[in-house]
Design goal:
about 375 residues; four-stranded parallel beta sheet; 10 helices; about 35% helix
């Protein structure tokens, strides 16, 4: 077997652990392993395809990022190219990719990526390529798996930030608004907000009203708690349904959401008269060493992906369905994106301990 590994989309802590586990378990079977640089760019002449050996993956499991690098502008079905007039035009280069893979003797690919990469993989499978996927996203928004590697690290980073904001907020009687990643899913905000004992948590899945957020903060003030911590997901929407968009996306990228923390802090300060500060955690959540949990999950995923290749599970994705690693069809995983269930016990517990989601008047 001549196996290739690709990492696409945004980076996530644990990618290198997947690469290492998949490579070593493939070598143990006597297979040859290649690494495709920057998504599928290496198969399109835009980067390299390199050998992966036991030496090349030694000592990388604890490292953030990906030794193969990655991109969220590498869709071979809509590959952007700069035109003479300065604009970009998309081209379908999927046949070229398939031909180049065949010329390199690649018999199967392990594609590590989020929903965008899963969609690309499914289209390539439909054209005859033999692909097994590993779900990767710090947002935890891929269906079919309990969680994805990178999520635990991102939550841990956010909790550390909340812990530090608590001390400075209380020292100055300030309201601190922390914006975390997640796009249209509120898992990072929910898990970090509850674990970090935030006072208000705002999610895309639970539309909120500014007046309810203000009430929650002022009720704390009346009880002598003069400061407050607000955690808001970058894609959180108020009752109007409007999401905060920042700037233009690069060609081939999904929309960029964010900037809500600054706007929200300004509105809270106007409504309450309390001093407010905002902070955008941003790409700190993607960087750094993966937690032990993410390293273990990534290693399990990498080994399971190689086993899925051996079993011919083309068009399948490895997934955690506690306590086991299983495979599920990519099509099933793509049917519906995973979102926070507003009735989930984490949300119910948060409400029970006094956390406001901005959708109800504050309890007096």
């Amino acid at each position: 077997m001549r196996l290739a590994i690709s990492t696409g989309g945004g980076d996530a802590p644990g990618l290198n652990a997947v690469i290492r586990a998949a490579t070593l378990s493939a070598i143990a079977r006597g297979w040859t392993v290649l690494g495709i640089k920057r998504g599928y760019a290496g198969l399109l002449g835009e980067d390299e395809v390199v050998p992966l050996t036991a030496d090349s993956v030694r000592g990388i499991a604890h490292l953030g990022g990906t030794i193969l690098r990655t991109t969220n502008r590498g869709n071979p079905f809509e590959f952007p190219r700069l035109q003479a007039d300065g604009t970009y035009k998309n081209f379908d280069r999927s046949d070229e990719l398939i031909d180049n893979a065949r010329n390199l003797g690649i018999q199967a690919i392990i594609s590590i990526g989020g929903d965008g990469s899963l969609g690309i993989a499914q289209k390539l499978v439909d054209k005859g390529m033999r692909i097994v996927c590993v779900p990767k996203t710090i947002d935890n928004d891929v269906s079919g798996t309990v969680t994805t590697f990178g999520f635990d690290t991102a939550v841990s980073t956010a909790i550390e930030a909340i812990d530090k904001l608590h001390t400075t907020a209380e020292s100055h009687d300030r309201v601190m608004v922390l914006e975390v990643m997640g796009r249209d899913a509120g898992f990072i905000a929910l898990h970090s907000g509850v674990s970090g004992t935030a006072d208000v948590v705002l999610l895309p899945e639970i539309p909120w009203k500014l007046e309810h957020v203000v009430q929650a903060i002022m009720e704390r003030d009346r009880r002598g708690r003069k400061f407050a911590i607000v955690v808001v997901a970058e894609g959180a929407t108020d009752e109007s349904g409007q999401v905060s968009i920042i700037g233009e996306s690069m060609p081939g990228q999904a929309r960029r959401v964010g900037g809500i923390a600054q706007r929200l802090a300004h509105a809270i300060q106007e409504q309450t008269g309390k001093e407010c500060r905002s902070m955008v955690l941003g790409h700190l959540q993607r960087g750094g060493m993966p937690t032990g949990y993410d390293r273990l999950l990534a290693t399990r995923f990498g080994g399971a992906a190689t086993q899925a290749v051996a079993d011919g599970k083309w068009g399948h994705m490895v997934a955690l369905q506690t306590p086991n690693i299983v495979t599920v069809p990519i099509k099933e995983a793509l049917k519906e994106p995973k979102r926070v269930d507003p009735t989930h016990d984490v949300v119910r517990t948060a409400r029970a301990v006094g956390i406001s989601f901005g959708d109800r008047p504050a309890a007096v």
